[in-house]
From TrEMBL:
Domain Ice-binding protein C-terminal: 224-247
Range of residues in the leader sequence: 1-27
Keyword Cell membrane carried by entry: no
Keyword Amino-acid biosynthesis: no
Native source organism of the sequence: Roseateles paludis
Protein's UniProt name: PEP-CTERM sorting domain-containing protein
Annotated keywords: Signal
Length: 249
């Protein structure tokens, strides 16, 4: 007697194959609203969701006493190297300037202590080399505000984020925009489908040599909530297996 395959079996095979390959997807980016209250809660949510958290702390590379309410001393460095608790070395490269540029939530240290922030001497383009890689990256960004008011404007800002794996293959890209018209700040979370070894940050849109500022970069491998596509394929696979077992019986 000729056997016929169940009509769901091809779909089941496709779903299981996709699940087996880890469902590769473009890196995604979400940005908090441009208010300090939302920035603070978004940053705290990022911290709370991480089982293991690493930090690229600009204060660790600053080298001067920090004071509240003033840029004070500042330092220019083409490369900043920081050793994480697990021995992994992370680096930031570019025309980097460090100082206490921004005071406030999302940019201060623990208990509202002063902290160094990152700016760029010119266009805000820099690279983050993350060593063995992380799948979740978060940082705060501010524009139109700073302790050195001669180097800020109210034109807003836009940034492209390009994530690469260890073999320099593009994982994905995303863009975030801060509105014009005054001071604006936001929290950015990047979720990548593979460990990010290199994250490029590029000022896009109307490029300006006026400064935007970047707080500490938080790094983790906490898995984000599964995408709807993943959940749908998993459900399809389970339904298909159940039907196939019934047919075999």
């Amino acid at each position: 007697m000729k056997r016929t395959s169940h009509p769901l079996l091809p779909a089941l095979a496709l779903g299981l194959a996709a699940l087996a390959t880890g469902l590769p997807a473009q890196a995604s980016l979400s940005a908090g609203a441009s208010t300090t209250d939302n920035l603070t809660s978004a940053r705290q949510s990022f911290i709370d969701s991480a089982t293991t958290l690493h930090r690229m702390s600009w204060t660790d590379a600053y080298g001067y006493p920090l004071a509240t309410g003033t840029g004070g001393n500042y330092t220019f460095q083409p490369t900043i190297s920081l050793t994480q608790a697990d021995g992994n070395i992370t680096q930031a490269t570019g025309a980097i300037s460090l100082a206490n540029w921004v005071d406030g939530p999302g940019f201060d240290g623990p208990a509202a202590t002063p902290a160094a922030d990152l700016a760029l001497n010119g266009y805000e383009d820099f690279d983050l080399h993350l060593g063995h890689g992380y799948t979740r990256i978060g940082l705060s960004i501010a524009t139109g505000v700073g302790t050195k008011m001669t180097e800020v404007n109210a034109q807003g800002a836009s940034f492209d984020f390009l994530a690469y794996d260890a073999s320099h293959q593009l994982i994905g890209s995303a863009t975030v925009t801060l509105p014009a018209g005054g001071a604006a700040s936001t929290w950015v979370t990047l979720d990548a489908s593979a460990p990010v070894a290199l994250l490029q940050v590029r000022e896009s849109g109307t490029r300006s040599i006026y400064d935007q500022y970047f707080g500490d970069v938080l790094l983790t491998n906490t898995a984000p909530v599964p995408e709807p596509t993943s959940a749908a394929l998993l459900a399809l696979g389970l339904v298909g297996l159940r039907l196939a077992r019934r047919r075999l019986r």
